[in-house]
Specification:
Two copies of one chain form a homodimer. With about 240 residues, chain A is of the alpha/beta class. The first copy, chain A, is built from six helices and eight strands, in the order βββαβααβαββαβα. In chain A, a hairpin with a 2-residue loop joins strand 1 and strand 2. At the A-B interface, helix 5, strand 8 and helix 6 of A face helix 5, strand 8 and helix 6 of B.
C-alpha cells in the first residue's frame, strides 16, 4: 500500500513540486529517484514508483520543470527541455539539488539512492553519475546519451542504459561513444540494446507524442524493468 | 538431482560424444543445447547444465570436436576451431546435426530448444539462429560475432548476446555490425554490453588459457546468467 506526498521545493528561484511515493509506515528504505521524460511528472512515473514501493523501495518522482508545466503541451515541454539541456552545468546543479532533497527525507536510507530516468530524464540520471555524485547507480531508460561537454571525472555509480537500437535520437555511434566515455570514467557500466525498439519504449502512450521513432514496446518495457529490478537487488540487497 | 549421460554420435565420419544432463525421471522438458568454448566439452559447461536442471530444464552439452580432444592443449584446440570456422557451411551442417540429436531425445520437449554457447560456441549458437533453424532462442556468452559470409535469411529465433566491451576479439564495430545484421534478419534481439569486461568472463579459470584479454569477471558472469534465466522464463514459461 503506497502513499504519495507532494514535496514543494525551490531551485534558484523556481518553484518545483516532486512526488514522494513510499509506505505509510515511514520507515527508512532504499530509494529510487525517478526522473521523468521531457513531459515532466506524470502518472506513468508515479505508477513506476508504486511498483517500486511494492518491492520494498521508495521512489521520489523528481520535478525538474515546475508544477505549472504539469500536463503542458508537447511543444512547451520541448522548449523547457531545450532550456535545461542548453546549460549542462546548471542542469547538474538542478540534479544535485534534487539529490539533496531526497537525502533530506526521513524515509530515504542513507547512502542508498539510485537515480533512474526516462528519455531526457535518462540523460539527467547519466549526468548525476557524471557529476561524481554519491549515488549507488544511475539508470537510463531510452535515455539521451549526449555528452555534457564538461571536464570528465571518475564515475563511482554503477551505470545501466536500456536502449532501443532504432532510437533515432541515439544512433549506434552514440552507443559506442557512451561505452568509451563510461570506460574512461572507470564506471561499472552496462548497456542493454534491444533490436527493433524505438525511443520511448517504456511508455504505453508513447504514440500520443506524435513523433516518428517514438513508440511503446511491451517486450522491451518488460525486459528492461526485469533487469532494472535485478540491478536494485544487486545494489540494495534483497531484503527491506 | 541431475544425471549425466554420454551420448555418442557421428557427424560426417567423425565420432563425437555429447553429454546430456537431465533429471532421473526422464520426463520431457525444455532443453538448452550448451555449446562449449574452443576448449570443448568440460566440467564448466556440464556444471552450467546442472544449474539448468535445478531450474527445471535439461541441458545437452554439445561436442563439436570429438571425444579424443577432451582436455587437449590450447594450441591443438585453436587449430580445431580454425578448421571448423574455416568452412561455415560445414559448421552449419554440424550444428544442425547436433540440433537433430537433441530433437531425437525423449527428454527433450518438442519445439522447446534454446542454443547457448560460449566464445566459439557463442558464434555457433548465432550460426544456428542464422541458419533459420527452429530453435526458440540463441544465446552467446562472450561469443565471436564474425558474420558467416552466407546469404542472409530471416532469423526466427530470439537472439541475445552477452558481451564484454573490452573483448579484444570483438571490437565495438563488430557489435554495431551484429546489431545491423540481426535487425536486417528481422530477429528479436538483445545485446548486453558490460564495461571493463574481457573475453571469457563466465569462466573462473579463464586466466589458465594464458591470453591477454581473456579473463573471468564474477559480476558479469552473474549478470549474464541472471538475464539468461530471465530469457528462459520468457520463452519457456516459469513452470516445468
Amino acid at each position: 500500500m503506497s502513499k504519495d506526498r507532494a514535496i514543494p521545493h525551490n531551485f534558484e528561484g523556481e518553484s518545483l513540486e516532486s512526488v514522494f511515493v513510499g509506505r505509510r509506515d515511514g520507515e527508512a528504505r532504499p530509494t529510487v529517484i525517478l526522473i521523468p521524460t521531457v513531459m515532466g511528472v506524470s502518472e506513468l512515473e508515479i505508477g513506476f514508483g508504486r511498483q517500486l514501493v511494492e518491492l520494498g523501495y521508495n521512489a521520489l518522482v523528481a520535478d525538474l520543470f515546475g508544477k505549472e508545466f504539469r500536463g503542458a503541451p508537447r511543444d512547451t515541454m520541448f522548449g523547457e527541455m531545450k532550456r535545461l539541456a542548453a546549460d549542462r552545468p546548471a542542469l547538474r546543479r538542478r540534479l544535485l539539488h534534487v539529490l539533496d532533497l531526497a537525502r533530506g527525507l526521513d524515509e530515504v536510507q542513507d547512502g542508498q539512492i539510485v537515480a533512474a530516468g526516462y528519455c531526457f530524464g535518462g540523460m539527467c540520471a547519466l549526468d548525476l553519475a557524471r557529476s561524481g555524485a554519491d549515488i549507488v547507480a544511475a539508470v537510463a531508460f531510452h535515455g539521451l546519451f549526449d555528452p555534457p561537454g564538461l571536464p570528465p571525472g571518475k564515475i563511482d555509480a554503477k551505470v545501466v542504459a536500456f536502449h532501443g537500437w532504432d532510437d533515432p535520437m541515439v544512433p549506434p555511434e552514440a552507443v559506442v561513444s557512451l561505452g568509451k566515455e563510461l570506460t574512461e570514467a572507470g564506471a561499472d557500466w552496462q548497456i542493454h540494446a534491444y533490436g527493433h525498439v524505438a525511443h520511448g519504449f517504456t511508455n504505453p502512450n508513447a504514440h500520443e507524442i506524435g513523433l516518428d521513432g517514438v513508440r511503446y514496446n511491451a517486450l522491451a518495457a518488460e525486459r528492461s524493468w526485469t533487469s532494472f529490478i535485478s540491478l536494485l537487488e544487486e545494489v540494495f540487497g534483497g531484503h527491506h
